[in-house]
Amino acid sequence: MHLTEETSTADLAALSTPKRASKERRRELERLASLCTDRETSVTVTLDEDRALAQPDKGGHEEAYEILIPTEKYEQHGTDLPQGLWDRSLQVAFLFHELGHVYYSDFDRFGDCLKGVGGRWRDLFRMVYNTVEDGVIETQVANEFNVTGDFIVLNEVLANRADRRHRQYVELFDLETVDGEPVQSYTVFEALAVGLLDRGFVDSGRFDAIVDPGNERRVVHNGRRDALVDLIPVMDDYVTEMLSDPSGTKRVTRAREFFESARATFESLPPLQSNRLQTAPVRPADARARQDWGVKPADKLPDERAANERVTGDQRDERTTQSGTGQRAEVGSTDDHRPPGSLEDETVRRVARQRTRAQASRGTTGRSPLEQEARRLLGIVDDDTTDLEKVVVVDPVEEGDMERWTAAVDRSRKLQQDLATQLRRERRPRDTGGYRAGRLDGRRLVAANRGTQRVFTRRESGTMKDYSCLVVLDRSGSMDGDPIRTAETATAQLVHALFEVGVDVSVLSVWEGTPCLEVPFGARPADHVDRLMTERADWGTPLSTAVAVSRKRIDRGEGSYPFVVVVTDGEPDDPTRYRSELEKCTFPVFGVYIGADSGSHTEFFDHITYADADSLERTLQRLVRTLFSTEA
After folding, report:
1. pLDDT (0 to 100) of residue 351
2. Distance CA 547, CA 544 (A)
3. Is the pLDDT of residue 471 over 70?
4. Alpha helix segments (H runs only) across 63-120
5. Do residues 488 and 412 touch, judged by C-beta distance below 8 A?
6. DSSP class of 522
7. The VWFA domain covers which part of the protein (predicted)?
8. Could you give all domains of the chain from N- to C-terminal order, each with its CATH number?
9. Could you tell me which of 478, 473, 498, 448 has the C-alpha nearest to residue 568?
10. What integer is the mean pLDDT of 561-589?
11. Model's pTM, two decimal places?
């Protein structure tokens, strides 16, 4: 994120949203699940790379379930939400979707019916049940909780992902196109899945396009559109009854009846039509045979009239397809519990705006250290006395180098012990002489005989200084390779050791010519490994800008006794300006030089040490011996 004068409060607020694969996100989702379930039901949340499903708790406890939530990154389409807020919205939608299955789906009965289905037809039965049951439980849960918007976004994302992958398949195998656009072909099985889904919670418009004889870009494989059209009345009746039946057990029975009708059609078609050909399933296939699965009535579904209007009513005639033009139908009223209706781009954008406003309007409570630090740095950018155009809050990489971080932490124990020793010495009580009253100092008896009265000592407590440290990490192009790995290791050892002895630490890097926030004050450095241990290195060395930002930040910051440590390998890009900024600093600035000759660049720091990969620990130990002895 770039902190500029145009940065919005919603963007800043998004920094307090835990990352989608973090422990904090898992705990947040688990707390949310506990608030939305009754006392008899226990739900644990597990983050999984790409699966979403609910299953009985492995401990075998009655009414205990485990919900898996995916951590993979889903792309936005037509929206521009902050990434953290976007990820959270989708994971909340997945959570409530699976909670719907926990309460309202009868997977016991589903398992019994599945046993009676021949192997060739199992995928068809699973699809016709799971696809419509998804729409049922989303409708029920959306009428219980304020998650309609989250479900709309989730359905839009999954429909868009399916479409994008379908087009990629056509392009990959150089299949048919119309006016340069890929022709998306569906087997009857694939088209039936889309049709049932579009009759459920929201309508993507894809099925209307598939059965439209004038649409050349969505077609039924081998021209078997007639078989699909013949199934439409049966599909409408099936989904209408499913959407209005509160009994999970009866819904499985109704799915079995529809399956038998559909199978009769498929038996008259070539076997290829009863399989997937160009599409891959993107929705969670979470209908599974389970034992002792509790099921409760879905008492907030629409009645049969409202469900029928949703599936076959006038609003279907008013819809347009994604590839067509004109106005879409408005989202349906919730008074009769019917699903939202069509899935239109404007609906998704409206949901996104509501999420952004809600995030931006929340109070100061719950702000993460990253958001708090970004707000302080934005204040520096907005300051008229600075010519700073932006500061970057570094986006985390998918996975920081935890192995190097762990090794650095392990090797920093001696450094941590040295820091703790320095602080103990500083805080240790001392006997101070030269007083008129107190305890007699035997070493001053001769002076007493001469008439001197200041021969007593007093016990004084040590100083409890509030220290803070800002580490500036040079990520210029000259640091690429071994130097940046050594510099990151040095930074990791230093910030971890300082943090463990109670010193507030932050890391501000210089990357691509811009100051970049990597570790904020008030945070655990271990929580930001995916920003720090990345081996990024590019552009020049504007250390003068980094020192200027550091000075402004520390002047407003934590710690009554601040100091700065610069980890670099070269000379500032503008030595004159750098010296000018250094002279304005009211705190010590230390330098750790990577690979430089001993004795060079001394004029740029109050104290300087030199390091390479082999001497790093010794260098840092020499540095910490000076940190608390210079009135830092």
Report:
1. 65
2. 5
3. yes
4. 83-104, 107-115
5. no
6. T
7. 466-632
8. 107-359 (no CATH), 375-417+465-627 (3.40.50.410), 430-462 (no CATH)
9. 473
10. 90
11. 0.68
